[in-house]
Design goal:
Length: 185
């Protein structure tokens, strides 16, 4: 499937009730996981890790890059608004990185959940988005030297990517076994 066809198919899901309902549920799950499962390590306070990536992976697999980008970006915005109603901690750069990460996961994982695809998706998200772009936004926001911040973040995010790959593999195998999801694709 070509990239343009993938984006067309993915955007068509936004006009169907069942995919919208699943995306809404995954958005709600992403918000809850983003608020309650994210944590920082004492030796790397500039890195937040958690499990809010799992609903994005499910949406990317089922409905493609457009839906995954929307759920990822909206999840970031809504998590911040719900955690801090004044909204002053909203960083558009981080939200754009979330959207970009959703696009990457959607392009690589759309209707394909092989181990190689999952590894490729998370390596691309790490190399293209999480490490360089998120670190740049944090560098601009906090004024910490870029390379120092990059090393802290790489020390945590690279090993955690292994956990993300393993969990994503397990979750996508479970999603494949849910017959109702196959009917509403």
């Amino acid at each position: 499937m070509s990239i343009t066809q993938m984006f067309k198919d993915s955007s068509k899901n936004l006009s169907k009730i069942a995919p919208l309902c699943v995306c809404s549920m995954m958005l709600a799950l992403r918000i809850v996981l983003g608020m309650f499962t994210n944590f920082t390590l004492s030796f790397a306070p500039f890195v937040k890790i958690g499990f809010s990536f799992l609903p994005i992976v499910i949406v990317a697999y089922l409905y493609g890059p457009v839906c995954a980008a929307i759920v990822s970006g909206a999840g970031d915005i809504l998590s911040i608004i719900l955690a801090n109603p004044t909204g002053f901690s909203l960083m558009p750069g981080i939200t754009l990185c979330c959207i970009f990460e959703g696009l990457i996961l959607g392009v690589v994982l759309y209707k394909q959940s092989s181990t190689k695809r999952i590894i490729l998706a998370f390596v691309l998200a790490l190399v293209l988005c999480r490490l360089p772009l998120n670190t740049l936004v944090l560098h601009i926001m906090m004024g910490i030297p870029y390379l120092e911040l990059l090393m802290y973040r790489a020390a945590v995010l690279v090993p955690f990517a292994v956990v993300e790959v393993l969990l994503s593999g397990v979750v996508l195998k479970a999603v494949d076994k849910i017959p109702m999801l196959k009917k509403i694709q």
